[in-house]
Amino acid sequence: MQLTDAISVVKGIGEKTEKGLNKLGIYTVQDMLEHYPRAYDIYGRLMNINEIEEGEMAVFVGYMYMNIETKKVRHLTIASCRVKDATGSIGLTWFNMPYIKNTLKSGSYYIFRGKASRKNGMLVIEQPKILSKEEYYNKKDVLQPIYPLTNGVTNNLLSKTVKAIIEEIDLTGDFLPSTIRKENDLVEYRFAVKQIHFPKDKEEMLRARKRIVFNEFFLFTLALTYMKEEKSKKIRKNPYDRGSISDALIEGLPYELTNAQKRAWNEIMKDMCDGVIMNRLVQGDVGSGKTVLAALALAMNAENGYQGTLMVPTEVLAKQHFESLSKLYEPFDISCLLLTGSMTAKEKRLAYEKIKNKEVSVVIGTHALIQEKVEYADLGLVITDEQHRFGVKQREILSTKSENPHVLVMSATPIPRTLAIILYGDLDISVVDELPANRLPIKNCVVNTDYHSTAYRFIENQIQEGRQAYIICPMVEESESMEAENVIEYTQKVREALPPFIRTEYLHGKMKPKEKNEIMEQFAKNEIQVLVSTTVIEVGVNVPNATVMMIENAERFGLAQLHQLRGRVGRGDHQSYCILVSGSRSKETKKRLEILNTSNDGFYIAGEDLKLRGPGDLFGIRQSGDMEFKLGDIYNDAKVLKAANEAAKNMSISEIQKLCSKNERLKHQLEGYIGTTL
Ligand code: ADP
Ligand code: MG
């Protein structure tokens, strides 16, 4: 068995299962090995009932002192009862499991396990598992992988498949030189793969994790080294003429640029007018006004006779940028074009033609921009917005669509400078560290779930005053396919809680781009007042009239992500509010959310968050889930990132090639990264 083999080589994987695995992004044996557990399940010690906390997993012995009652509510059969021990009692509920009534006998003791939640102010456990003594003691203190799932793919299937692969595949031949391994106290790769999936205990798992994270960062640095080398080979470019359009654009803005924006614009301009090839990252907190910098650079590029592109991660954002840029460019002779994946084949063909014949000078779109069929006429500038959503590879493909385009990358991810230098090692950095002066700081509050009705009243009042609101829906843990259902159900609840003149709609990841665009457009026009959404809303969206961001299950998000979500409000002249609803009363959650409550500064938040959670806090939440690392988290694993960078950055191209020639696996992975053959 080889890592590059299709996953169907594993015994027992038929066509149907393979399709399911494909949905999870698993095509090869390697993909399967790199489908890492998102968490591990541990059956801890038996708790007392009075120790059970909201939002936490509990396992305990309960005495059935009453019979189970069942009732029917719409299509649901609900079975419920209460159990007790010497310290207290708790409610249990099961849905659509009428036979439970015959399984559990009043007057007996059972071991129950489940997550506690609060219903009408009381703690209950929904769908608790019933464990035999044997089951419990067999599983106690053993870490069992919990994998990301999809419809038709069970945790059991994944864990069996991984086990089968590990038994058969040859993972010897570690590509990391043993000196590097020793220096950094790293376990062997083969051992790491086994232990990350089936760790003996937490300590082993952390060691395995460290090694795999190191690998990811090491490979990443090698890829950067390669690209830097490629770039330094490139010749100089004809210097741009400063022209008059960008100044006229600035003159015509309804506001004055902040000093930070002016500084960044000067740096961009200098790059382009100096005859070097720009490779620049613009890093600025949400709402710091990065879009206008892109608009200025694209205008200057057009005035110099070149085509330019602006690539963004979502269709909603592409549309929004297209509209605001078109409007901005109206007085000038700059034509814009929108190119997205959801356009019809005919529309796309037309767009390709216009691009090729140079009928347009600014092309805005999603990753459709880098499709093979797009041929640019004379690409002078390539901008990617919200860069953390794109891999190095995509950025690279776009810049190879022409000889030597200027490259500008815009990101709101608050990465400390020391890390940014590593992660964007091939780029110069401009920092936009100032918010427009007219902004009122967002008012924050952290509340628990009892606060719902007050929050809805608050939203209602804001809407009465003409404003709008976002609500980030509670999360479903079980599977992504339930996400849609969950959003729809929750939206219904919100509709019932608000008066009928308020229009509430929803947005989720499973909707077609066209549907999403329509909803977003109506929200932008205030035809929709409340938008219930999953986190698909988080990047870049700009509706300045929205003043409330209410986030359910705030405890489940990383602080950086919460900060991004919050950044959707506070974009206009009105006072804005962020309501963080936490389903957990744990001290740690409180402390973490308190950071967000007291600060609106993304860099400060990322730094404080880092202090609170030690490295190896594996059960924590991934902060940078959209970076290109599967396991590594640039915040939590900052130390490993630095170490891997140290180890890799001084390798010369010939050393890297030598390493690759000795190890097919490394070569293969590195090629995957940079998108070309070595
Ligand atoms: P981000 O940096 O998050 O991409 P945007 O570019 O979307 O931020 O800008 C957010 C909002 O701020 C937009 O409505 C934009 O028009 C406005 N804006 C940008 N620069 C300024 C400024 N200097 N003064 C006032 N408003 C500004
Ligand atoms: Mg933006």
Automatic annotation (TrEMBL):
Recorded family membership: Belongs to the helicase family. RecG subfamily.
Protein name: ATP-dependent DNA helicase RecG
Catalysed reactions, semicolon-separated: Couples ATP hydrolysis with the unwinding of duplex DNA by translocating in the 3'-5' direction; ATP + H2O = ADP + phosphate + H(+)
Record keywords: ATP-binding, DNA damage, DNA recombination, DNA repair, DNA-binding, Helicase, Hydrolase, Isomerase, Nucleotide-binding
NCBIfam families: PRK10917.1-3 (NF008165), PRK10917.2-2 (NF008168), recG (TIGR00643)
PROSITE patterns registered for this protein in UniProt: HELICASE_ATP_BIND_1, HELICASE_CTER
Residues in Helicase ATP-binding domain copies: 271-432
One GO MF term: DNA binding
Transcription regulation among keywords: no
EC supergroup of this enzyme: isomerase
Alphabetized SMART domains for the sequence: DEXDc, HELICc
Gene Ontology terms describing biological process: DNA recombination; DNA repair
EC number: 5.6.2.4
Biological role stated in the UniProt entry: Plays a critical role in recombination and DNA repair. Helps process Holliday junction intermediates to mature products by catalyzing branch migration. Has replication fork regression activity, unwinds stalled or blocked replication forks to make a HJ that can be resolved. Has a DNA unwinding activity characteristic of a DNA helicase with 3'-5' polarity.
Helicase C-terminal domain location: 451-611
Taxonomic lineage of the native organism: Bacteria, Bacillati, Bacillota, Clostridia, Lachnospirales
